[in-house]
Amino acid sequence: MQTFSLASLMPSLLQLAKDAGQAIMQVYNQPASFTQVTLKSDQSPLTQADQAAHDIISTGLATLTPDIPVLSEEGKLVPYEERRNWKYYWCVDPLDGTKEFISRNGEFTVNIALMANNKPVAGVIYAPVPDELYYTDGQNGAFKQIGNQPEIKLQVSGKTENLVIVKSRSHSTPEEITFLQSFPVSDEVRIGSSLKFCLIAEGRAQLYYRYGPTMEWDTAAGQAILAQAGGQLTQPNGESFPYNKPNLLNGSFLCTGWQ
């Protein structure tokens, strides 16, 4: 980075993710009848928690890096003509896994990624319920920290046989089932939100294929962490995954615990 050391910024970035997580938990711990759920224009659910986390993250990032714009799921949609020439920007999902939040299964996360030349170079994923942080500064590996315990360096398993595949808790398609039949799979695990990337990064699973639609802020932080742990996220044909597209909707992708 030209204006700051990302490594030195990480403690503040991790705390920002935790602060957003705490705001989410204040809503999550209310009786379900008190949680207001509305629908976005695409009919996906929006809770008070989404907006509270967005406000904390956007304000915090503006203080930490005032010259770097923020692209957030809950923020004002930035026209492509304005963002197409961004060299750096933050790609944020304040609450990934809103359906998991609403169903009260704890499998939701806060996602923050730093993009450089339209590639995820650093990322933070925070799961508030188990108090688990996954993160990378893009240069020194990827790490996991549970509560205040010492951080653990993440490493993919590297296995290419007897694979454990990770699937979405809320989404599944016939196309995914067909695609995965070509791999030597021995088991599967289902989990919500960006935690799927984390399971591969820490070696507990090796394969995740997504056919259905996601948004760029759903994948950016996970891709940065997975890459630093030794895995990768690509298009199904092996080509690099595009970001900052005119339409922020993602196509299909494949995550592997090897490169």
From TrEMBL:
SUPFAM superfamilies: Carbohydrate phosphatase
Family per record: Belongs to the inositol monophosphatase superfamily. CysQ family.
One Pfam family hit: Inositol_P
Species, as recorded: Adhaeribacter radiodurans
Assigned EC number: 3.1.3.7
Protein name, per record: 3'(2'),5'-bisphosphate nucleotidase CysQ
GO biological process: 3'-phosphoadenosine 5'-phosphosulfate metabolic process; phosphatidylinositol phosphate biosynthetic process; sulfate assimilation
Name of the encoding gene: cysQ
Source domain of life: Bacteria
